[in-house]
Write a structure and sequence with these properties.
The complex is a heterotrimer of chains A (119), B (668) and C (282).
Chain A (H helix, E strand, L loop, with lengths): L18 H21 L6 H23 L7 H24 L8 H11 L1
Helix pairs in contact in A: 1-2
Chain B lengths: L1 H5 L27 H5 L4 H29 L10 H36 L7 H19 L8 H7 L22 H30 L12 H33 L12 H35 L6 H14 L15 H29 L8 H24 L1 H7 L3 H31 L1 E2 L2 H27 L16 H31 L1 E2 L34 H7 L1 H17 L3 E3 L5 H16 L6 E3 L2 E4 L3 H21 L4 E5 L5 E4 L3
Antiparallel strand pairs in B: 1-2, 3-6, 4-5, 6-7
Chain C lengths: L23 H29 L8 H4 L2 H26 L3 H31 L9 H30 L10 H35 L3 H7 L1 H20 L10 H26 L5
Helix pairs in contact in C: 1-5, 1-9, 3-4, 3-9, 4-5, 4-6, 5-6, 5-9, 6-8
Classes of the chains: A mainly alpha (119), B mainly alpha (668), C mainly alpha (282).
Chain lengths: 119, 668, 282
């Protein structure tokens, strides 16, 4: 491997500033958060809101990890490493949630009827 | 690459003129004596400490097992009481898993990884020392309950050693059923052990991926290093699950939460899930490094390279990751529902495939080779056969309907002892014999080594084979005694006799090792005519491992070196020249802080679990709660970590002249 | 810990002394964050499992939550993430003073977030009567958000330590005196931050909540304000009197590492905000 490439620069600024990108993304994240908060009050079907919230959160999540946490410009192995943990965590969560909803708990009305039936 | 390595920040001379790092305690420089061991960051010394502590606990765990077997030798025995029996099987399991096999694997990770990849130490040497001492804290917390049997005040507080089973199922772990501290100590002890393992694994992941010698691509890594890498990934990804579960049980016990409290809406089954999300990857954590040892030993004693290297590596990774998806096979009898049961059953069967692939590849390695039946090879061959038997009983478990009969019976005990003793322990015993000459410079006498192997092999099978039948004939696990008319009398009697024979075998094995340490025949750097880089350096290795960082040209790097000695000799001279022109061999400095930080960790954790109770000393109450001491422990821990960061990486240089004399220079 | 350039300025994306080119510390932190994903994943799973199976008599989240406060906290944490990214950006370009300002900003916003949590918890306990032990929702909610809050607090502490480190003078002799000054500096940072989030911010939010007026807020928090002012004065003194620090582009890797931790804490909150708070309103 060769020695690190020299960036000759009199002012010592080897790294171009990413200030503009960061500020724009922060604004975007703020707007998305605002949309999420408004969304829960809208009279839409639950599954639509749920999916929208999940998608918006995922978008925010990805922007933070790829831009603020620099994954977009780093070696791809860092991304792979993190996604191994993320996907495993997600899979475990999904599996646990399914394991605990195998049997639907009785609704209040059904519970009441069962109580009456048992006497 | 050598140039870049030599030019790395570790060797830059500019540091000499710079500002001093802030230190409260100086970097220790002694090479011998107690302090040198307490403050060492040398991976070899750390590995030896892990190994010695592990062997001590292995023998303690064995004693616990012998007491269990003695209690069961005849029906209606009253050798020990039922409560004590519960503590024995709890501690036997906990000790063998967390205080014997895992630290023995950690010992080999420490001893071998840097020298197999051509590095001088791990990526973060002080962090490595911290994991060792944190492990010691965890070991103390787990075993401090035994003081109950020698001290009355301890008995009042602790109520004996932990007795909730090594898996601590809720609601037995709730304050109602186990009100004394033994369960809190168990939970906190495991928590600290988890911290130690996570920290160590992070270190090894970075080391294996980032500190390989020039030319050492991932697909040229020794299989042991690959298995260590996969194991480290499993540890960092599985331990968080049990960390949370332990937090939840400690909160239930001490802060009145309702995670597993039915009266508050909690579900004890959640503990089982979270525990086994960790617990199943844990068993692969236990077995993958042994598979690595065997993959190194078989080629050496078959006089040919490992068969199917890429597929063995891939299968190891596959076993590790599929292992995250099978945890509920420990819960088939809990009423998961048809879909879940079927899914976990199929996934469990799927794991048998990569495992079988590995076994075929090991057989392929033996096939057509010139088999040399030295002691390590005997243990390795024993591993293949015994692990297979354990695998067969395992695949029987994977069929959920069959498991309905086998669950919680002695059949399960037979299964996991075949894979853990016949598998993991045999491979560890093989590895100890194989690498003992490397680290101590002496060869274990062949006759006694082989004798200990045969006694262990026979003793082990006599102990555990009958348990298959005991289990299928209905004998449940974890029962203190049994009636004479159950049909279990002969099986238990034979098993106990086998256990004593196994004990004699283990005793012989370690007695021989101790003898060898003092009086064994000395050997050179490569007594086995082996294939990997660690055999290219002197036995025992010098502090700096390699005089010249090797360049790797092929898999089985040392074998290539032995067959291309001129080329290699030229390379080595060049590397030595490059390194000495940049200051010489750079070595990391020892440090007090990892050890001292763990003293804080012990004080903090030991007092944290007693938060609500007053501090009583010699009959008088000192403080109303343990909180001040817990906080003090936390402050010590934090301060030491902070001073550790202020201390800076430090380091010194070693120059070796042509006569082999070493001079040490420091710029700090 | 500082790293040294081989020659010229540093390539912050490539470390040629490692096999992959990724600096060791960066690799370590990303591996740790992968592990932390499982950690929070398990905690969030516990919470969600019990939301899917609520027992009778459980607390009702929509009756307990103050979604305005939580939304405000979410914005605050997002902005703190921006400031953190700017801090890393600054030190990668060698701008130490700018980095310090951004670090202080990140810590300040972090303390506002924490203060909001302290207020939220005490409000839930004292006004809504939901505790750790009297409901399952309390058990899971406080443990989950409390663990996240602890992560934030540790982050603020680490940022404070990095802030102090950026003042280490080039002519330091590594003596006990230097250590003493460092510890005083650290204490001042901790006092300022600690008082803000434990007392000042919750007190301020309390004032907004029950409209008791700015005057009464000032009088009931005089000690806090005095403490913060004193700590601030000490910080100002250190900022003014320190000479050239032994801190430049070569330390950017350490600031970046803390940045990774801080951003991770933010993305966990993104998940928690949706899965614990917003979902309840459906």
């Amino acid at each position: 491997m060769s020695a690190p490439v020299e960036h000759a620069s009199a002012s010592g600024h080897a790294e171009p500033s990413k200030l503009h990108i960061y500020v724009q993304i922060a604004m975007l994240l703020g707007v998305i958060t605002g949309v999420e908060i408004v969304l829960i009050y809208l009279p839409l079907a639950h599954w639509i809101i749920f999916t929208a919230l999940a998608t918006l959160s995922t978008v925010k999540f990805m922007f933070v990890i790829f831009y603020f946490m620099h994954l977009r410009w780093d070696k791809v192995f860092c991304t792979i490493l993190f996604f191994i943990g993320l996907i495993l965590g997600g899979f475990t969560m999904w599996a646990l949630l399914h394991l605990f909803t195998a049997a639907k708990p009785l609704s209040a009305a059904a519970l009441e009827m069962a109580r009456i039936a048992i006497g | 690459m050598a140039e870049a390595l030599a030019q790395s920040h570790y060797t830059d001379k500019a540091h000499a003129a710079g500002p001093k790092d802030i230190t409260l305690l100086p970097r220790p420089t002694a090479k011998t004596g107690l302090i040198s061991w307490l403050t060492t960051v040398d991976h070899k010394k750390i590995g030896m400490m892990y190994g010695s502590f592990a062997i001590c606990f292995f023998l303690i765990g064995g004693l616990e097992a012998l007491m269990i077997r003695t209690q069961l030798i005849v029906p209606n025995n009253r050798f020990i009481g039922a409560q004590f029996y519960n503590q024995l099987f709890t501690m036997h399991g906990t000790t063998m898993i967390f205080l014997a096999v895992m630290p023995l694997n950690a010992a080999f990770f420490n001893l071998l990884i840097p020298i197999q990849i051509g590095a001088r130490d791990v990526a973060f040497p002080r962090l490595n020392a911290f994991s060792l001492w944190a492990w010691v804290v965890g070991a103390i917390l787990l075993n401090i309950g035994w003081l109950s049997y020698v001290n009355h005040a301890a008995d009042v507080a602790f109520g004996g050693a932990p007795g909730v089973g090594w898996f601590g199922y809720a609601p037995l772990t709730s304050k109602i059923f186990t009100p004394k501290l033994s369960t809190d100590l168990w939970a906190m002890g495991l928590q600290v052990l988890g911290l130690s393992s996570i920290v160590a694994s992070l270190n090894f992941i970075v080391t294996i991926i980032n500190m390989r010698a020039p030319g050492l691509t991932m697909m040229r890594l020794p299989v042991f290093c690959w298995m260590a890498l996969v194991t480290s990934f499993l540890l960092v990804l599985a331990l968080p699950a049990i960390a949370i579960a332990l937090v939840e049980v400690l909160f239930d016990r001490n802060f009145g939460t309702n995670f597993f409290e039915v009266s508050g809406g909690g579900q004890p089954i959640l503990w089982q899930h979270l525990f086994w999300v960790f617990g199943h990857p844990e068993v692969y954590i236990l077995i993958l490094p042994p598979m690595g040892y065997v993959s190194e030993i078989l080629p050496t004693f078959s006089r040919k390279p490992l068969f199917g290297y890429p597929i063995i590596v891939f299968s190891g990774a596959a076993i590790g990751f599929i292992g995250f998806g099978v945890w509920s096979h420990h819960m088939f009898t809990t009423g998961l529902g048809n879909v879940a049961t079927a899914a976990f059953s199929v996934a469990t069967m799927a794991i048998a495939v990569p495992t079988g692939v590995k076994i075929f590849n090991w057989i392929g390695t033996l096939w057509g080779g010139q088999i040399v039946t030295r002691t390590p090879m005997m243990f390795a061959l024993g591993f293949i056969w015994m692990f297979m038997l354990g695998g067969f009983s395992g695949i029987m478990h994977s069929a959920a309907p069959a498991d309905a009969q086998q669950q919680d019976s002695y059949f399960v005990i037979a299964h996991f002892h075949y894979v853990l003793i016949g598998g993991a322990t045999f491979a560890l015993l093989a590895a100890i014999h194989y690498w003992f000459p490397k680290f101590f410079g002496r060869l274990v006498p062949e006759f006694w080594g082989k004798l200990s192997f045969w006694i262990i092999f026979v003793g082990f099978n006599v102990t555990f084979f009958p348990m298959h039948f005991l289990g299928l004939n209905g004998m449940p696990r974890r029962t203190w005694t049994y009636d004479a008319n159950m049909g279990w009398n002969e099986g238990n009697f034979i098993a106990t006799c086998g256990a004593y024979l196994l004990g004699i075998g283990i005793f012989t094995y370690f007695a021989v090792l101790i003898y060898t340490y003092f009086k064994g025949e000395k050997c050179g750097n490569d007594p086995w005519d082996a294939r990997t880089l660690e055999w290219s350096i002197p036995s025992p290795p010098p502090e700096y491992n390699f005089k010249a960082i090797p360049t790797v040209h092929a898999r089985d790097a040392y074998w290539y070196e032995k067959n291309h000695s001129d080329e290699i000799a030229k390379e080595k001279t060049e590397h030595i020249k490059a390194e000495s022109s940049h200051g010489g061999i750079h070595m990391p400095d020892s440090s007090w802080y990892p050890f001292l930080a763990c003293i804080g960790l012990f004080i903090g954790t030991y007092n944290f679990i007693q938060l609500k109770s007053p501090v009583v000393f010699n009959g008088s109450t000192l403080t109303a709660s343990h909180l001040p001491f817990a906080i003090a422990g936390g402050i010590i821990l934090f301060t030491c970590c902070y001073l550790w960061s202020l201390e800076g990486p430090g380091g010194y240089h070693i120059h070796i002249d042509d006569e082999g004399n070493e001079t040490v220079t420091r710029s700090h | 810990m500082s790293s040294h350039a081989a020659a010229g300025s540093i390539d912050h994306h490539h470390d040629s002394s490692t096999s992959t080119g990724i600096p060791n510390k960066k690799l370590l932190w990303w591996a740790f964050l992968a592990s932390d994903c499982m950690f929070f994943g398990t905690l969030i799973s516990t919470h969600l499992v019990y939301r899917l199976n609520p027992p009778p008599g459980n607390a009702e989240p929509t009756k307990v939550f103050n979604i305005e406060l939580t939304s405000f906290s979410t914005f605050i944490l997002l902005m703190s993430s921006l400031l953190m990214a700017l801090a890393v950006n600054a030190i990668q370009r060698g701008q130490v003073k700018s980095m310090r300002t951004m670090l202080l900003g990140t810590m300040f916003f972090g303390c506002i977030f924490l203060g909001g949590q302290v207020f939220e918890f005490s409000h839930f306990v004292h006004v809504k009567k939901m505790t750790l032990s009297n409901s399952l929702f309390g058990s899971t909610f406080y443990t989950l958000t409390g663990t996240h809050g602890t992560h934030v607090a540790i982050g603020v502490l680490l940022l404070g330590l990095m802030y102090v480190r950026s003042f280490k003078p080039t002519n330091s002799h590594g003596t006990a005196g230097d250590l003493g000054l460092t510890l005083i500096h650290v204490l001042a940072v901790c006092t300022a931050m600690g008082l803000s989030f434990i007392s000042l911010v919750p007190g301020f939010l309390d004032m907004l909540e029950n409209g008791s007026g700015f005057g009464s807020f000032l009088s009931s928090h005089t000690l806090t304000l005095v403490g913060i002012a004193a700590a601030g004065a000490v910080l100002g003194w250190f900022a003014k009197t320190s000479g050239a620090p032994d801190f430049d582009q070569r330390n950017a890797i350490d600031v970046e590492a803390i940045g990774l931790y801080w951003h991770f804490v933010d993305i966990v909150w993104i998940v928690i905000f949706t899965a614990v708070y917003l979902i309840e309103y459906l």
